[in-house]
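Z., the sequence and structure:
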Amino acid sequence: MGKVVLVTGVARQLGGRFVRRIQRDPEVDRVIAVDAAMPEHHLGGADFVQADIRQPAIARVLAEYAVDTVVHMDVSGTALGGGSRGSVKETNVIGTMQLLGACQKSPTVKRLVVKSSTNVYGSAPRDPAVFTETTPPKSLPSGGFAKDAVEVEGYVRGFARRRPDVAVCVLRFANILGPTADTPLTEYFSLPVLPTVFGYDPRLQFVHEDDVIEVLRIASHDPVRGTLNSGTFNVAGDGVLLLSQCSRRLGRPTVPVLLPAVTWAGTALRTVGLTDFSPEQVRLLTHGRVVSTAQMRETLGFRPKYTTAEAFADFASSRGPGLLPPEALAKAVDRIAGLSFVGGDDKHATQSAN
């Protein structure tokens, strides 16, 4: 018998893509796709179960299908459809608690993969140049999706202690970009004019949605020789981009404003429903964040297909031309940035974005 894989969050594009991809693996016998909402996209030959992971019924699903591998992708920073921030938080935190409780009682579950985020490190002025998986944040996130991710990882660590027989893999993804990506940052980059914090040009990392699917697939299987598919891993494309480089490559003008005004603008944007410009997002766009991906390569054995710059380029091409000619401006800004940019310690995180 092959693997029986249960995937949560399948109503989202990323979850749906993973369900369709994992079915093609010869070691997988059956895929159980779970979400409270009916997906608008097809799920191939997967068995769809409409269930809310915030409810105890998820335990019956694990038992009925004798699930041995759980891929928890229903941890998100954006609402689905007309959902509210409150419903997202409940699914992220309460849903994870219920799912882990069901996994703890299940005798068949042997592997758990959790989609997390580098948001758990926060963004602060005295942050290290490069975060590793063991670097503690200077200040824990105080709200929003970043705080959800911290709480989710705390519950996962508790589960791992209670069920040491289950292989647990936590993947901390950098900002996910791609033609179909739907995150607060993609909403920000889709604005016609980008508000930025006066005096700051943060370093950013991205991971392409195709690489997200592939590393989730690798983590959901038994490890190959010389690798270890359990533990916590940062996942990001090689290199970094400055926010100024991003805006020029998009062809979108920026409006540098003082930090208090950015916070006010974020509140206004959320009020009219344009984008989730949360305080944590403001901190990211002020101080940036760069993580080491050495463990992803050396221990997990995964090498992304897309660099940070390539992931951003694919996203930018899907959004169409901006108000400014991006090619000429990008070259000029990149040359200036190259003269002043001081990289971090990790050789993969700090290689040239070009």
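Confidence is low (pLDDT under 50) at residues 339-354. The chain is about 40% helix and 15% strand.

Let me know what you think.
H.
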